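Bench notes, afternoon.
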Amino acid sequence: MATSPFDLTGRVSIVTGGNGGIGLGMARGLAEAGAAVAIVGRSTAKSDAAVADLKQRGAKAISVIADVTDKAAVAAMVERTKSEFGRVDILVNNAGINIRKPPHALAPEEWDSVIATNLTSAFLCSQAVYPAMKQAGGGKIINIGSMMSIFGAGFAPAYAASKGGIVQFTRSCAVAWAADNIQANAILPGWIDTDLTRRARAEIDGLHDKVLARTPAARWGEIDDFAGIAVFLSSAASDFVTGTAIPIDGGFSVMG
């Protein structure tokens, strides 16, 4: 019987920030499609819980504690994954933070912190997995953008700059590495129910109602809404899809 184009059996994935939120939703999708998963984060307790979650779903999974803004730590992350699973086929650059202040109130060190975590980490991790993917004959890179890759927000200048940068970085990787059979794509989450957005709702008056009013699906997204897109962009089903930025937002970005 022909193998499903969505089957990830034998593939190995790295998911940064995979121990919660959207990253965990994507890791679950990859695991259930047959991929081994390296969960990368800074919290041992959260990462161990995520690995237990994935193992309950029948997946091979490990926790890698790493600071993805540090080149040496990123190199060690890739080597650990290769030593455990033998290869690297899929990278999900999901690690991210936000500091909600208007541009005039944001300190340079706060700007640097957001850019390093959200954008520089994607560069470092992509660069680090490239040799392994080339050796394996191809690979898949999924970078996590945002609605702020499209829209402006006065309360998120560094975050918006980082997520706009993610889209352009994705396109550069797609063009540079197409000859190596590496596809790079971005997804742009809308308003998803995570720890990050729960803090946003606490800090921004009326946000919850504004999001529901603008979202045609009339709900906040759930982390498991990202399982399908993770599998598609990591599998042979998307071999001719590269350099895209796909909103996963319940229609938020198409509303007038």
